């Protein structure tokens, strides 16, 4: 009996032991960019032959994981601050930092009638979802927008926080919160009709959401990771990133 | 010594105690008759009820959290019914956390009670019946005092288990200070933002508190054993 299972076992061991012929790159990706990176993934893999493995979370959460030695090769954050701090601490390659996308904040409701401007924040609602401002840059932008609109204090107690922007989006999509501040990229996936109603928050209400990517120190000489960062700066990626509602600033800083 | 716990941390701690207290009170109220029925019934489908009661022990919190989010939300059966009755949906409220915690901690209260009731056996109750005690009287004056160790264990485990709740609250809580931001969530946020000093303070506090709680119960249980209860 053992002889019959042996070839299968050997095969499994072989499959586990033989490295993929191309490289693998592990990327820590901010939640708002999830749908976009999923759309980029097959193109990157087709263009380079490397395999991309994505872990998503809030920028702050991923930052804390990297600080604690998480095995990521590249970090696609939703701000500039965390990639910069990683570079300052010697955990990221300093020269590798660049802005891969600039995001927009939207006030959104699953109800098609509810949002027609900032006055939606003065209407009747029980819950307003935002991402946690301490860990998620879009949450911070939402806090700044509410402060700028003079509604931050008065809405305390009605604001519910998601651990990241995807949870905030889910709170609104499921109807558990009537309103929420989400990333425009979560609403405008190409080829999918938009639901509900939204107000694109003018950018004077919050600091610009410049999303930076950085090569992590442990992958400084890892060709697949370098290839990913190059791919993100190329025209094919840029075109797709724009279609998800981002802009791409020319300035690197 | 600098203040180790901020006022927000204290608030989270008080809220957690309140949640555990209300949850256990509710579970004792609902769980006692259920445990009694489970201990006495000879119904064939009793095993199905026992299995349902034990489910929260084995299900990942995400399964409970997901179903609760759907059920308690405005489009769900519970949230929708409440809204139709003029109330508000329960997701992201303290009441919603109480409902969630009662589901989550159900086996920790029902199972010790059921075991305690079963251990009494029929003899003391039949003796009471021959002396003319009615069913409610028998239950309150014979079964409950004899099952006091079971009640102590159920109360403590239910309380302590609710203190340790995390995954479900993360999904249906919404991190609202003073309403749904319990200690476990506050610790998670401190860790996520690398505020290790605050995470240490809250974690140590919860650790010591839980240890003291369990220590007290085990010590009490030993004393009961020693005096033959």
Order of helices and strands of chain A: HEHEHEHEEEHEHEHEEHH
CATH superfamily of the largest domain in chain A: Periplasmic binding protein-like II
Shape of chain A: globular
Multimeric status of the protein = heterodimer
Name the poorly predicted regions of chain B: none
Distance between the termini of chain A: 64 Å
Helix content of chain B: over 70%
Beta-strand percentage range of chain B: under 5%
Distance between the termini of chain B: 46 Å
Report the order of strands and helices of chain B. HHHHHHHHHHH
CATH class of the largest domain in chain A: Alpha Beta
Q: Quick one: how many beta strands of chain A?
A: 10
Tally of alpha and pi helices of chain B = 11
Total count of domains of chain A: 2
Measured on Cα atoms, how large is the radius of gyration of chain A?
Answer: 20 Å
Structural class of chain A: alpha/beta
Mean pLDDT score of chain A, rounded? Answer: 90
Average pLDDT number of chain B:
90
Low-confidence stretches of chain A: 17-21
Describe this structure in words.
The complex is a heterodimer of chains A (253) and B (229). Chain A has 253 residues and is of the alpha/beta class. Chain A has two domains: 2-102 and 209-243, D-Maltodextrin-Binding Protein, domain 2 (3-Layer(aba) Sandwich); 104-205, D-Maltodextrin-Binding Protein, domain 2. Helix content of chain A is 36%, strand content 21%. Chain A contains nine helices and ten strands. Chain A has helices at 2-17, 34-48, 59-67, 81-88, 137-148, 165-173, 184-187, 223-232, 235-243, and strands spanning 24-30, 51-57, 74-76, 98-103, 105-109, 128-131, 159-162, 179-183, 197-200, 209-215. Chain A has a five-stranded mixed β-sheet with strand order 2-1-3-10-4. In chain A, strands 7-6-8-5-9 form a five-stranded mixed β-sheet. The longest helix of chain A is centred in the first third of the chain and has 16 residues, at 2-17. Chain A is globular. Residues 17-21 of chain A have low confidence and may be disordered. By secondary structure, chain B is mainly alpha-helical. Chain B has a single domain, classed as MetI-like (MetI-like fold), CATH 1.10.3720.10. Helices cover 77% and strands 0% of the residues of chain B. Chain B is built from eleven helices and no strands. In chain B, helix 8 packs antiparallel against helix 11. The longest helix of chain B is centred in the first third of the chain and has 34 residues, at 7-40. Chain B is globular and about 65 Å long. Chain A binds chain B through residues 58, 60-61, 64, 67, 126-127, 129, 132, 134-135, 157, 159-163, 171, 174-177, and chain B through 69-70, 73-75, 88-89, 91-92, 170, 174-176, 179-180, 189, 191-194.
């Amino acid at each position: 009996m053992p002889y019959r299972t042996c070839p299968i076992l050997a095969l499994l061991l072989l499959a586990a032991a033989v490295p993929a012929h191309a490289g693998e790159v592990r990327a820590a990706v901010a939640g708002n960019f999830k749908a976009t990176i999923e759309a980029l993934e097959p193109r990157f893999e087709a263009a380079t032959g490397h395999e991309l493995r994505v872990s998503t979370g809030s920028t702050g959460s991923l930052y804390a994981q990297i600080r604690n030695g998480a095995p990521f090769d590249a970090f696609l954050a939703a701000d500039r601050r965390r990639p910069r701090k990683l570079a300052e601490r010697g955990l990221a390659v300093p020269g590798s930092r660049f802005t891969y996308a600039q995001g927009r904040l939207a006030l959104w409701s699953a109800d098609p009638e509810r949002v027609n401007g900032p006055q939606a924040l003065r209407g009747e609602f029980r819950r307003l979802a935002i991402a946690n401002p301490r860990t998620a840059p879009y949450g911070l932008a939402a806090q700044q927008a509410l402060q700028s609109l003079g509604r931050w204090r008065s809405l305390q107690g009605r604001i519910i926080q998601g651990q990241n922007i995807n949870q905030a989006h889910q709170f609104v999509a499921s109807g558990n919160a009537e309103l929420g501040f989400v990333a425009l990229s979560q609403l405008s996936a190409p080829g999918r009709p938009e639901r509900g109603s939204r107000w694109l928050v003018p950018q004077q209400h919050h600091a610009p959401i410049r999303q930076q990517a950085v090569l992590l120190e442990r992958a400084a000489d890892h060709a697949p990771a370098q290839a990913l960062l190059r791919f993100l700066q190329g025209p094919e990626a840029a075109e797709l990133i724009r279609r998800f509602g981002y802009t791409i600033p020319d300035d690197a800083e | 010594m600098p203040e180790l716990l901020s006022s927000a941390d204290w608030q989270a701690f008080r809220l957690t105690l309140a949640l555990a207290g209300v949850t256990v009170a509710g579970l004792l109220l609902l769980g006692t008759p259920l445990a009694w029925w489970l201990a006495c019934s000879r119904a064939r489908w009793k095993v199905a009820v026992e299995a349902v009661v034990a489910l929260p022990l084995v299900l990942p919190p995400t399964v409970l959290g997901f179903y609760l989010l759907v059920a308690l939300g405005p489009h769900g059966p519970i949230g929708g019914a409440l809204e139709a009755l003029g109330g508000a949906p329960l997701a992201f409220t303290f009441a919603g956390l109480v409902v969630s915690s009662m589901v989550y901690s159900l086996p920790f209260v029902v199972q010790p009670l059921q075991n305690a009731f079963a251990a009494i056996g029929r003899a003391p109750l039949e003796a009471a019946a021959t002396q003319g005690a009615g069913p409610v009287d028998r239950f309150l004056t014979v079964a409950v005092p004899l099952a006091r160790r079971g009640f102590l264990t159920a109360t403590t485990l239910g309380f302590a288990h609710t203190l340790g709740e995390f995954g479900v609250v993360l999904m249906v809580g919404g991190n609202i200070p003073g309403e749904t931001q319990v200690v476990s969530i506050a610790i998670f946020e401190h860790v996520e933002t690398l505020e290790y000093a605050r995470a240490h303070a809250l974690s140590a506090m919860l650790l010591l508190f839980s240890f003291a709680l369990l220590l007290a119960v085990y010590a009490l249980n030993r004393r009961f054993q020693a005096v033959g209860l």
